[in-house]
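worker-03 picked up job from queue 'complexes'. Input manifest follows; three sequence lines, order preserved.
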Amino acid sequence: MPDPLLEIRGLELRYAGVPAVRGLDFRVGRGEVVGLVGPNGAGKTSTLLAIMGVVAPHKGEILHAGRSLAGLPTDAIVRSGVALVPEGRHIFPELTVDENLRLGLVGRRSRDRADEDVARVAELFPVVREDRDRPAGLLSGGQQQQLAIARALVAQPDLLLLDEPSLGLAPAVVDDVFDALAEIRESGVTILLVEQRAQFAVGFADRTHVLANGELRLTLTPADAQDTARITAAYFGS
Amino acid sequence: MKRLATGSQLLAPVLLLALVGVLGNFTSRSVQFQFRFALVMATIVIALYVFIGNSGVVSFGHVSFVAVGAFAAGLTTVPEALKLSLSPDLFPLIAGAEVGNAVSLVLAAAVGGAFAFLVGVPLMRLSGLSAGIATFAVLVITNNILRNWEAIGPGARTLSLVPETTSFLQATCGAIAVAVVAFAYQRSRFGRVLRASSDDAAAAQGAGIEIHRQRLLAFTLSGALAGFAGGLLVHLLGSITTQQVYLDLAFVTLAMLVIGGVRSLWGAVVGALLVSGVNSLLLTAEGGIGLGVGELNVPTGTRLVTLGVVMALILLFRPRGLTGGREVTLRLPR
Amino acid sequence: MTSALQTLIDATALGSIYALVAMGIGLVFGVMRLVNFAHGELITAGAYALALTNHLPLAVSLAACFAVVIGLVLAMDVAYRPLRTTTPTTMLVTTFAVSFLLQAVALLAFGARGQNVGVLPELNRAVSIGDVRVRWVTLVSIAVGAVLLGATAAVLGRTDIGLQMRAAAMDPRTAQLLGVRASTVIRFAFVMAGILAASATVLLTVQRPLVTPSYGFQLVIPALVGVVVGGMDRLVSATLGGFAIGFAAAVLGDVLPADGRVFLDTALFLLVILVLLVRPSGLFSRSRAAWERL
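worker-03 finished. Artifact:
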């Protein structure tokens, strides 16, 4: 793949000496949507946190548009165009929807055209338009998810990382979320999607990697979305 | 085999204390005072460690127990006439009491322990910052009462003419005795249970361990040891005032413990002796005139600044203390 | 009745000054989880600056006070960097060590005897409002206190940096993930704390013009206690706690009988212990909530 937007090479992550991720290799091309699935504790969230500079790799490299992210502080990584929608959303419940969104603007490279981007996400996510002054803690799960994604988008990322966006949401709501993600993909943003519920990722992403026990086991395409046997086998490591 | 191994963790602190005690004999008179003073400080810091090191809860109030111990030992070893001249309203019981040196030390420990128990019953439920503030409140209250209630002591005046019985032998043996008690406690079931529960309070409560009770035990024991140290202190200085056992002493002893390493007995001893040593060195460098009897050695002038800088630097760059909170195991020669 | 009103007004004034100090402590705690024992030394430094420049025009004197305090607070920002990842105990003892150190420096530089500030002595004159005689400084303290507290609330509630500070206090991990720079936010908190402390210093020195090396330390101890008693987790409760302590100290001072007055500290701190036993997370705190919208 020429000129990938994100490249993970030989990544090894450890917590208190115990390896959480081992020898992870994969690439995400510009404009692609890549999924990362696997059971709990497989190392998916750790990988995302490593990209964001929160966890320091024990070994291996993380490259964004060819530039190594090693040793960079999180705020520099955000400003270079990588945004994370964290697992569990982590919106600020005591702040209003508007304030939550404004926090996302902190990560922008420059203030130029911020209003345009805000207008765009307001178009995409009704909650931003309609509930501006509500404390975010009063929103439903689905609305909070919308807000979290909107917040990440206004930081002007070229690479959007999502950690389990379907977590705790009803299937109909998940559909709405993925519809929004489809529009985001169309606008040219590259997406790395982490999901525990494999079926959502596999059907949506161009490619989905299965991670189990810290290692990459298998790569699936949308065609495999119905092949639950294969997915299960990969999860449980045969 | 095992007993030998654990016993040898006590050796290092005891040997160091003994070393200081022996070496001090060979110095000049003014310096001798500093050595004995360092040993008494070590005693206080070990008492402090028994609670803070094992429970993980900060107490700013332990100097209150040193204070009551000092006054108890002091008031019972000076003549009645002196006491009444200082405070005519003194309770007859206190005015009339006159005991020997050894009894005064035991009394100091008893008073310290009783006071600690009294304070600990309500306070041991707290932890973290609330515990710190509450124990600080105890310190302020104790000082306020001692300073103003003239029925129990000399108030703001100096209690002097206390017999100076804290010889090298007493100071060293006192410090070693307290170290042995501290070690016995931390090795006992009670000490180990408290230490384990300080690392993970939720798990401990799940296992049915009553943290409150264990903390109270440690608090009371450390209060008794602190009281004993107070007795040694007053018999070293030959006098005592409330300001000598208040904020400055509270800060210095706590800093000594943190610098040495909060979680180990070795840390307590090393911290106390090292800081005392640095202070003495600075005193000598200043061309120091030996501290006269009756002057508590909270340094003045440049010494204070230097000591402050040293302490702040050590704390900023080695937050776990010089010993990292570890004990030192000395292997006995075979 | 009149003297009760008098007491209440005086208590409100003292409470306002303590509230300014408490708010400064609370701001730094919120973004850094650090209790700065040396906060009092900011006040001492400002007071000495005022004392040393009191022969110069008032504006210069005030400027010197603010400059010294803000300079010192920025130095603390840098000095405390290594502490960001240590335990609360170590933080407490280390900032105490810094406080000790700064007091020693003051002792060395200025001696123990104390200097007279003598700034704005006119404010000590009293004015009669109805039946009550109130000193100007009392009214000014309440007014300045209200204005500054309001201004701080406005900065926190309406500016971008204020939003970042609130977010960092509520959930530092997520704030970091959004690109909030901890260093920037912390520095800003320190500067705001410095401004509040300098203001408190000016008001305080009018009523207590004799500056000694432990001037600020003596003030910050009850203020700190007030912050913990009020509730460390929220800025509002921390500030209220500071106000409450100042208020309570003033009221107790007037209410206690003359020979009981020496036991003011005992009464105050017994109250503190009682509050901590009944509501350990703070008098005004609300369960686990972090900083709220102000």
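worker-03 released lock.
The longest strand of chain C covers residues 126-129.
The interface with chain A takes residues 160, 163-164, 166-167, 170-171, 173-181, 289-293 of chain C (CB under 8 Å).
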